[in-house]
Amino acid sequence: MPQIVSNFLGHVQLLAAPILEMIPNAALAAMLITVGIKLAHPKEFIHTFQIGKEQLAIFLVTIFFTLFEDLLVGIAAGIVLKIIIHLFNGTPLSSMFKAPTLVSFEGDNYLVEIDKAAIFTNYLGVKSKLDAIPPGFNVTIDLKKTKLVDHSVMENLEHFKHDYESHDNSTVKIIGLDDHKPLSSHPLSSRKAK
Fold first, then answer.
1. 16 near 147, Cβ under 8 Å?
2. How does pLDDT run across 30-77, given as a tens digit for each residue?
3. What pLDDT is recorded for position 27?
4. DSSP state of 176
């Protein structure tokens, strides 16, 4: 009897294999359609435009290449356009992938000075230095020597500030943006040195 059951299950698996292979594709398709509908909502375009015209351009280029080519091609096209926009806005090539960041410590105060540019391609280095600061200190992030601070870095610095200040006796100040011009009216828009 166990042999008969085993043979029966083997035949069912053989016949059902093509159907089982379709389940992950169907689930993936449903997920992509849901995400696509949410991204295609007019509110997303308006919100992206409010952050900055350059953000809307990147969003549209990414969508275009994703629809007409491939998801990876769309993402790559968006990244390339963002790098071109950063170069146009004065980001030096030398700081495209590494932001010169100096961290100094005195008493209860940490000073983090970022030089040249703070953009999405070099933020991981900045983030690793910020993450190394133990909780319970006064942290000042000085951006006055930067030529450009992009939207993603502004957003990440605000997240760092929120998370770091959740610890007792911890404060974060972001300074040095007085001589920078925001590229839109959004509070976390990219900022370019005047």
1. no
2. 877 887 787 778 888 898 899 999 999 999 999 899 888 888 899 999
3. 77
4. -
Residue with tokens 């549209």: 60
Backbone angles phi, psi at 59, to 5 degrees: -60, -45
- Say which DSSP state 152 is in: H
Which of 101, 108, 109 is closest to 126 using CA atoms?
Answer: 101
For the stretch 116-125, pLDDT in tens is: 999 999 999 9
169 phi-psi bin (left φ>0, alpha ψ -120 to 50, beta other)? left
Q: Specify the residue for token string 């294999």.
A: 17
DSSP state of 134: P
β pairing state of 180-182 and 171-175: unpaired
- For the entire predicted model, the pTM comes to 0.75
Report whether 119 contacts 148 (CB < 8 A).
Answer: yes
Scanning the structure block, which residue is given the tokens 């992509």?
32
Q: Give the Cα separation of 77 and 55 in Å (integer).
A: 13
